[in-house]
Each structure stands twice: as structure tokens, then as C-alpha cells.
Write a structure and sequence with these properties.
alpha+beta, 6-stranded mixed β-sheet, 3 helices, 23% helix, globular
Amino acid sequence: MRVNFLKNIKKVADACTFEVCGFICENKLFFIKNGAKDIQSAFLIPPRYYFNKIESISCVFHSHPKGGATLSDADLCSAQEAAIPNMVYSVENREFCFYDPKVKKSIYFSL
């Protein structure tokens, strides 16, 4: 994963009071408008965004404006069902959590 992608996710998330979300696809970073009803505490990427990119999605990401970077039960379930790694950035704690559904492990790190 490219460090400049992580820096861009951090920069955008730090500037927002709501959950930001998107995809990392091969060598591109895509921010997608959060489609959740309560964007302060949830994220939803509308299904139509997955259709053209599903084969090339390396990671789904979102931020937690408050609280830690730990993935919620819903985040873990989504990652497992889609078999796509997920990453959360905690604005409050300034740390990332990367979850790989293949090995069911999380890695925490900071920049």
C-alpha cells in the first residue's frame, strides 16, 4: 500500500467531522461519498460503486472521527463477506487498523 495514499486518507479524514470512505484500487485512491444515513458514526459505499471496480479493489477504507481504529462487528462481517481487506483510520487516536479477512488478523500502525 502506498504511503502517499495513507497520508491522503489521513489528511482528508482529519479535516472532516464525519466518516470518510473509499477504495484503494491498484495504483489509485478513490474517495466515495458516504451513503450512510448517519455519516457521523457509520459509512456505506453504495453497491453501484463496487460493480466496475470489484476485481481491482485492494482495500476498502473508512475513518472513525471519534474512538479507536478497531473495526466494528459490521466492518468485520463486511470484510469477510466480500473477502476484501478493510482499513480504518482513527482521527482521535491518529492510527490505522488494517484487517485482512483471509487470515482474520488486524495490524495497527501510525504514520
